[in-house]
Amino acid sequence: MENLFFDIISWVGLVICIGAFFIKDVFRLRLATLIGCSMLFVYYSHIDILQGVISNLLVLLINAYYIMRFIKAKRAEKALQQTTLVNQTVTALPE
Question: What is the reported pTM?
Answer without folding.
Answer: 0.80
